[in-house]
Design goal:
Blueprint (H helix, E strand, L loop, with lengths): L1 E5 L4 H7 L6 E5 L10 E6 L3 E5 L3 H10 L17 E6 L1 H7 L15 E6 L1 E6 L4 E6 L4 H9 L13 E2 L3 H16 L5 E11 L6 H11 L4 E6 L4 E6 L2 E5 L4 E4 L2 E6 L4 H13 L1 H19 L8 E10 L3 E11 L6 H8 L7 E2 L1 H11 L10 E6 L4 E5 L3 E4 L3 E10 L5 H16 L4
Antiparallel strand pairs: 1-8, 2-3, 2-11, 3-7, 4-6, 5-6, 5-19, 7-8, 9-10, 10-18, 10-22, 11-12, 12-21, 13-14, 13-20, 14-17, 15-17, 16-17, 19-20, 21-22
Helix pairs in contact: 2-9
Length: about 425
């Protein structure tokens, strides 16, 4: 394994250069003025791949343990130095948590997928540095591809169809509020989904390029296996685990649309921060994640260093908190995932009952949506994101989904409009 500096090109151009390669994984930090959006990775030619349908955490741990862990070159400057990249879907996590579903799985989509990557391009966007990590014999081919990156073709027309219209959403919203009134849950996440036929020859890299221009985000991902994949512009970090065992999660709960005029936009952000309903909703999920981290973190280590911060993205301001802890001795990233998936911000509280109600009220399975995308390093470190603001692609269909947390104080009209703000960049693709 070597690490070699190359002439810098944009990650977007590099994605185009390798868009036709199988099992491509692009970890894309595209947000503006965001300290978490400094490093991107283009992961090439996985050594192996793993499809997950049951017992994902143990299988993923055992699978990674079966491969040699190459030493990190001294001049490789990035946190991720090879390992597993992929996703565990919401439906697989729900099933593993013991909550059955009335839906059949989405055709052509596994419960989860990971590739084992040892060949990586790392991009330091602040310093405009590009570094190759991989076998020495692969460097010449990678360099040649980067020098001759093609332009991706324009997107074909996409014909989106809603599975839940406004009247049906209102009906399901009121049914959820009835569960809240009865004391079943304090809140639950209700989402709606759109589908479109997948045009022949459509490249996910082209979809992702268009999405990152409309909605740049710190946790973007383009993952394309050929048969299925994801194009993601997630703003939400799920779990970050450092090699020393430090854990951070940053749940999003609370949204307001951006405004075109700067003063009005600042007022909208301030209104979100001060909104009692949004603060209560965020606090409930923050407390849920404190409880989840407490299952695997050292006693007394779980803290909330940040409560009700506002983060701003292309379409919306979000209310965000941070929960931190230190993983207990002898536990690892797979124990952490098992204790926390599905994420509390996209289920509700209490989590188990919220998942049961979600399955009753939504129009179809979630598949990968609302699961977690992650890189898991050979050194035990991990970073991950909630799979939101994401297009899921199978051989035949594209899926776009969005929603939000419903509490007793929620009004169906504003919740529906919030969901449409979140999904708007996805539905704008191919229009």
């Amino acid at each position: 394994m070597i690490a070699a500096h190359l002439p810098f090109i944009s990650p977007e151009t590099a994605l185009a250069a390798f868009s036709d390669t199988p099992n491509l994984a692009f970890l894309d930090s595209a947000a503006d003025n965001d300290p978490r959006a400094r490093v991107s990775y283009l992961c090439l030619s996985p050594h192996a791949e793993l499809r997950l349908e049951a017992d994902p955490y143990a299988k993923l741990r055992d699978w990674m343990a079966g491969f040699d862990h190459p030493p990190r070159p001294a001049n490789w400057p990035f946190p991720f130095a090879g390992g597993a990249v992929g996703w565990i879907g919401y439906d697989l996590a729900r099933q593993t948590a013991g909550v059955p579903s009335r839906f059949t799985p989405m055709p052509g989509l596994p419960g989860g997928w990971f590739g084992l990557y040892k060949q990586i391009l790392g991009f330091d966007l602040a310093r405009r540095e590009l570094v190759y990590l991989g076998p020495a014999e692969g460097l010449a081919d990678v360099s040649a591809r980067l020098r001759n990156a093609p332009a991706l073709p324009p997107l074909p027309k996409l014909a989106w169809t809603a599975e839940m219209d406004r009247p049906l959403y209102r009906q399901r919203h009121e049914a959820l509020r009835a569960y809240i009134a009865a004391g079943d849950v304090y809140q639950a996440n209700l989402t709606l989904r759109f589908t479109a036929p997948r045009p022949p020859g459509l490249r996910l890299a082209a979809l992702h390029q268009a999405l990152r221009r409309l909605s740049p985000a710190p946790f973007g991902v383009c993952l394309d296996t050929g048969a299925f994949g994801l194009a993601c512009a997630s703003p939400e970090r799920f779990l970050r685990l450092r090699p020393d065992g430090q854990v951070e999660t940053r749940p999003i709960k609370g949204t307001i649309a951006r405004r075109a005029e700067p003063q009005a936009d600042a007022q909208a952000a301030a209104a979100l921060r001060a909104n009692p309903k949004e603060r209560a909703e965020n606090l409930m999920i923050t407390d849920l994640l404190r409880n989840d981290l407490g299952k695997v973190c050292e006693i007394g280590s779980v803290r909330v260093p940040e409560l009700w911060s506002v983060e701003s993205y292309a379409q919306a301001h979000h209310l965000v908190s941070a929960v931190t802890g230190r993983l207990r001795q002898g536990l690892d990233a797979f124990d952490l995932l098992a204790a926390t998936l599905p994420g509390g911000s996209i289920t509700g509280a209490p989590k188990h009952r919220a998942m049961e109600i979600i399955d009753e009220l939504e129009a179809g399975p979630r598949g990968a949506y609302c699961g977690a995308l992650a890189w898991i390093g050979f050194d035990g470190a991990m970073d991950s994101a909630i799979i939101i603001r994401t297009l899921t692609a199978t051989a035949d269909l594209l899926y776009a989904q969005a929603g939000g947390g419903i509490t007793w104080d929620s009004a169906w009209e504003s919740e529906y409009e919030e969901a449409m703000v979140k999904i708007s960049p996805l539905l704008a693709l191919g229009q």
